[in-house]
Amino acid sequence: MTRIRYLSLAGALVAGTAQAYDLPVVNLGLTSFLDGGLPAGNGWYLQQYFQNYSSHRLTDQHGDKLGLPKTKLDYQVSVTQLSYVSDLRLGNGNLGLNMLLPVVTRMKVDDGLNNAALKDQGGVGDLLIGPFIQFDPVMGANGPRFVQRVEFQINVPTGEYDRDKDINPGNHAWSLDPYWAATYWFTPKWTVSVRAHYLYNFKNDKPSYAFGDVSDIQAGQALHANFATEYAVTPQLRLGINGYWLKQITDTQVDGHDVSGRREKVWAIGPGAMYSFSKNDHLVANAYFEQDAENRPEGSRVQVRYIHHF
After folding, report:
1. Which of the four, 1, 167, 246, 280, has the lowest number of CB atoms within 10 Å?
2. How many Å apart are CA 140 and CA 251, to the nearest integer?
3. Closest by alpha carbon to 219, among 179, 190, 258?
């Protein structure tokens, strides 16, 4: 069982791309400042993300490093997001739709064994689609005080997947990952934002070779969240702190039976900045340093995000 265990643990969570140990792609740190609202009202938005992740530590259920000569993982990922906020109303909000497509542009893994244990594959990841309601902001005497959004996000298994690989851009399983996002203004210059997700995964009927002769695997349910606070030091520049948190709350199932010792968790924190060229164009940069990982990589990620409203 030890050999199978090490092989099946190989993976990378690419906040938008590659399959992790068991859990699929989730939003860890992709979004941060002013997350509860969209900056320029209704219409079309294009957002482009570029992220670099580096880890020298793949962990087991106790948070210890896996027993391989090396556990080095580096990748770059590009995520394209297209959003539309319509004029259609539901209650005190506007209906909209988000679509995200990740692409692993570079993947490098080193297990110290000429990658005999860890096998990777880059390429196009799973499509994420999410209908949402963007609620009207609650206004105060000096501007907005609170704004929120609810989205029913669906991960569609359209990405590249090979059961003979440990790391895949796609997950070969549907999942639901609805969320609530909100921003609160303490003052016109100081805000705090949060995005809270609940993840439910369906079965993968072509599980990794590392599980042996089994019919299906179903990753456990999980909770995850992004959080951020920032201050406008000038009308264009905001500086702050951003982070994320993930905790798997049910066991992975193999052929319908719970498998203990595979639950994942991690949290991260780091600095961030946002520069607004105009109300239609914004640039966001975030860094994250992960802590207390179990059953997943532990490392650091840096990302740049550009937001354009047409």
Report:
1. 1
2. 45
3. 258
Q: How far is CA 93 from CA 25, 147, 149, in A?
A: 28, 10, 9
Mean pLDDT of the chain: 89
The pLDDT of residue 227 is: 98
Q: Rounded to whole angstroms, how far apart are CA atoms 32 and 302?
A: 13
**What is the model's pLDDT at position 119?**
67
pLDDT-derived band at 39, boundaries 50, 70, 90? confident
Q: What is the CA radius of gyration of the chain?
A: 20
The CA distance from 164 to 167, in Å, is: 9
172 and 204 Cβ atoms separated by less than 8 Å: yes
Q: In terms of DSSP H, where are the helices of the chain? A: 2-8
How many residues would you count in the chain? 310
Read off the DSSP letter of residue 3: H
Residue 214 has pLDDT above 70, yes or no: yes
